[in-house]
Amino acid sequence: MIKIEQEAWDLMVAHAEKTYPNECCGAMLGMIDGGVKTVRVALPLENAYPGAQRERYELRPEDLLFAQREADKNGMDLIGIFHSHPDCKAYFSKTDLENSCPWYSFVVLSIEKGHFNHANSWLPNLEQTEAAEEELEHPHA
Amino acid sequence: MPKILIPTPLRQFAEKKDAVEVSGATVGEALAALTAAHPDMKKNLFNDEGKLRSFVNVYVNDEDIRFLEKDKTAVTAGDTISIVPSIAGGK
Questions:
Q1: Which residues of chain A lie closer than 8 angstroms to B10, CB-CB?
Q2: Is the CB of residue B23 less than 8 Å from the CB of residue B66?
Q3: How far apart are CA A17 and CA A22, in angstroms?
Q4: Between chains, do B91 and A23 touch, taking CB under 8 Å as contact?
Q5: pTM of the predicted model as reported, rounded to 2 decimal places
Q6: What is the pLDDT of residues A23-62, one digit of tens each?
């Protein structure tokens, strides 16, 4: 299960709405206690995809390294990645899956006509062939 | 000995350590030493053919080994090896 605290959530939604109609992306930092992940900090990161960002996002490894270092510096864990789907539901697409990493939760925010609509969280497997839906709690729910 | 920084989700396989010092003169040797010492980490880094999984990037200090000598990149004491995932997607 993944829970997103208010401040982190507000930043994630604001980043997703601001970057609309392009996809946004970022990292989620927080704590893991047993089976519950709590996201305390959201780090908006640049979408480095060189082509049409309306349908694709890409994170620079250097930015992920930065996120990991920020987590360590603040006594937190790098829990996962968030990104948005403009005018599209928050499913985990084939492209998302084939370019995912099984170590993290993936929160997808659906942004319809510039405004947050709904979100889901996904856990891809090691072979990047399927993703299980993860229970998600966030302030908008 | 070079040091390998362990990403948070993999620390459970490395006795909860955030960094591990390993022997090895190259990145390949260092990663082999890491997975020899912590076998449960191996499948997260390598596929069944023994190749680094497609989502795994490796940096020596701040340089991506794909632009150096890949797993033959030399490492020395004082070097830091970072394991950083490659992540992208799209609707």
A1: 103
A2: no
A3: 9
A4: yes
A5: 0.93
A6: 999 999 999 998 899 999 999 999 999 999 999 999 999 8
